Amino acid sequence: MNKVISALAAGLMALGSAAQAADPVDTAAYDLLFKQGTLDGFEKGDVLDYRREVSNTLVPAAAARDTGEIELTLEGGTPPVARLEFRQDEKHRSLGNFPASVGNPVIMYFVETVVRDMAESAGGSPFYIRNRVKEALVRPADITEAEDGTVTVVMHPFEDDPNVARMQGFGDLALTVEMSTEVPGWYSSLSAEAGEVYRSTVVFEGVAE
Hints:
Blueprint: H1 3-16, H2 18-21, H3 28-33, E1 47-56, H4 60-66, E2 68-75, E3 81-88, E4 91-99, H5 106-122, H6 126-136, E5 142-145, E6 151-155, E7 174-179, E8 187-194, E9 198-208
Antiparallel strand pairs: 1-2, 1-9, 2-3, 3-4, 5-6, 6-7, 7-8, 8-9
């Protein structure tokens, strides 16, 4: 199991229990971000295409390494499996297989890559960073709904964190996810931004059969 798959698996376990981990609990953001059934209706062989773009002034080489295409392919089996793969030019890298019945694993990929990027760039502990994100998932968040039905969730995991001064700009990190029932797979865009230091976006591009 490679490092990316290990991180995704660890994140799935940690974030999956988030709704029971904090007090007080507000699961409105969590329920939207980890909505189940978002891959229902797709058939074996269907592919959801996403594009990830990264800028990172602290580690520019990491931004080049992590910018590329993400493919989610529906596999057969009981239960059905969603396979994630990262593509950059002619290079392909498996990101793992996930139960399709749980929902679209792109949200897990997004969260875990932001955790990894912040730890790599700011030198912090990925466990600390992941825990702060986990806690943000069950706190009140900025949730808005547009007239076209698009729902946007914005979270600031490190707001009022006592270690902000040591985060090299990542203390201002904002996570923004746009979702809609009109978008195949639910997520239209997922972005993480920390001022001029860091930006990561995952944007839905279409469905191939």
